[in-house]
Structures are given as structure tokens and as C-alpha cells.
Write a structure and sequence with these properties.
Elements: H1 4-14, H2 19-22, E1 27-33, E2 38-42, E3 45-49, H3 56-69, E4 80-84, E5 90-94, E6 104-108, H4 117-122, H5 128-139, E7 144-148, H6 154-161, E8 171-175, E9 187-191, H7 205-212, E10 219-222, H8 229-237, E11 245-249, H9 253-264, H10 273-283, E12 286-292, E13 298-310, E14 315-329, E15 335-341, H11 349-354, H12 361-371
Parallel strand pairs: 7-11, 7-12, 8-9, 8-10, 10-11
Antiparallel strand pairs: 1-2, 1-6, 2-3, 4-5, 5-6, 12-13, 13-14, 14-15
Helix pairs in contact: 1-3, 8-9, 8-10, 9-10
Length: 376
Amino acid sequence: MIPEEVFEQSLLTLFATIRPYLDDPTVTEVMINGPGNIYIERRGKLLKVEARFPSPKSLFSALRNAAQYVGKHVDAERPILEGRLPDGSRLAAVLPPAGRGGPYVAIRRFFREKLTVEKLIETGSMTPAASQLIATLVASKQNVVVAGGTASGKTSMLNAISSYIPEDERVIVIEDNQELQLQRDHVVSLEARPADPKGRGEVTIRQLFKTTLRMRPDRIVIGEIRGGEALDLVQAMTSGHGGCLTTLHATYPRDVLTRLETMAMMADVDIPLIAMRSQIASAINVVIQVARLRDGSRKVTHISEIAGFDLDRGTYQIRDLYLRRVTGLDADGAVLSQFQPTGMLPSMLEHLQAHGYDLPPEMYDAAARQAAPARP
């Protein structure tokens, strides 16, 4: 059997064409559109580079070895590959015939340096006061969804806010592909596994989640909700498992709830829609919305409370506690914006205060300004 470190070096040798970009801390993604057409993302901007694989065969060889490294197989009958490289970077590839003109490959870089809340504040992703609110919400065991589009920084945000989980709590993490680097000591990491070519050995997110409930979790973290596990998570949240954290692809906080509805309906459980909506509204307490702005920067755009479901109107009640307002562009094309409290106070305020937590003072100031009568 080949030693793992030898296997890793041989695999990275096959990817020698793009190795400089995999080692470059300013590159966040490498995209291969066939052997001679390679792009990178650097600081949120796409750039075409001169690098190219010697031949289609060399790129196929690298992908076959990557598949072998993660215990998978790719060929014309199984043209899709998802896995990770030895350094932890996430790889997704589509080979011919599904990817005509390919193979098409996207490699999301893995950074060993952990992104902290302090760095998010330094880069303007959020403000110190907003981070204080998030710290209160996480520490008080509110159920939080970090939502955003592709490459908007959802995973990085979840990693960063995990630092607010109290040290004496047991955290169980469930992922499709291991990406999270939670900033806690007592972390149990579980990873789903696809079936082998003969259909054996599959371990799903839903199976892991059900087992997790018997493993004495103080917190459950799901790397990303993608399917029927949404219903299991919602039911766990409404039955005493507070403080759950997860990410989800959605553009706005309201979209988070409708996407959860859709994914919960993928489960093999028949629940009336109105009951499901009421459960979702009760389960999800807060949505932290992140986005990549037009200048490539990644920012928090909303911190929103899910305050319930209005049965009469058939709508979710959403309170935006913080909003980012774009004010323009500077001379270099960078987006100018402000992330400020809206003046709305969360309906959970009494609960937070009863447990020794409070809101940032600027939220009370914004609420007072909003309540003050307008001057003639």
C-alpha cells in the first residue's frame, strides 16, 4: 500500500501546473475550463492566467488520482467528482461527456490561517457593535443560519462566530466535505460519505444527524443544508436543541425560509405546509446574511430576527436588526457602505436579558431615534 504522504506528493505533482496558485495566500479559487484555459480568483476578482496543462491527458490523470485519493472513481459513466486535495482545498469537477470541452474544475482554496471576528471587523465586513450582537445571539443559544450566495464567505463567517460558543460546550459538526475549522476545543467532526461504485457504504447527512442526537451534543453544527436533513434540523431545534448553527445558499433572509420549506419537503415525512412553516419560524431565530459586493469584497448585509409566522396573512415575520446601506463607489471602484442598526429591537430581548445578556448600546440609541417624534 502506498504511504499517504507519498500519495499526497504525487497528486500535487500532477497538479504542478496550478501549484503556484494553490500555494498563493491571495488566491481564493482556481478554475480550469479545459487544459489550456485557467482562471483564478484573487481578492474577489477573476483573472485569466497563462498557466496550462500540457495536454488533456495530463489533466485527466490528475483528476483520476484526485478521485482515487478520496476513494472515488471518475469515468464516462461517472463524470462528476467532488472531493478535496491533500491541503484541504475543495475540488469539484465535471468530465466529458457531461462537461463538453472540459474537464471543468473548480478548486476552492483551504486556508490554514483561521479567519477571526477581529479580522472581519478590520476588513469592514461588520462593525464591533454588530459583532457584539452576534456574540450575544450565539452565546445565548439562539439558532443561527448564515446565508449567502456562492463564494460569499458563509463558511468563513461560521468559522469566525464559532468563537462565541462557550468553551464548556460539546460541539458536533456534520459536513458533506470537511471544511469547517471551528474555534473550539471540544469538537466532534462527522463527515458524510457517498456510496462506492457498487452502491455500498453510503453515509448520509440525515443518518449522521439522527445519530448525533444520541451523542450528547450541546451544539449541532451542519456545514450546509442541502436536502431532507432540513426537516430533521428544524424538528431538533424545536425540541430543545438550541444553539444550532448552519449555512445555506440564499440571497435574502426571506429566501432562507422558503428554501428551508423546499428542502424540508424533500424528506420522507408528510407534514401540512402550514405546520411546517410554523415549525420553521419557531426553529430559526436569526439569519446572518453575507454577500460578495460588486468590488469583490465580502460583507455582512443583514442580521435579521425571525419573529414568528403570521397565520392570518400566511407570512413570516422578519425583523431586520442591522442592514448594510450602499452609498456609492470611491475613486478606485470600491463599494462605500454603512452597516447600521435599523432601530428595531428583537422580540427575544426579554429572554436575552433574563439570561444575563444585552444588546449593543447603539441598538437602543437607534430605537430611541426612531421613536422620537419628528421635528416640524
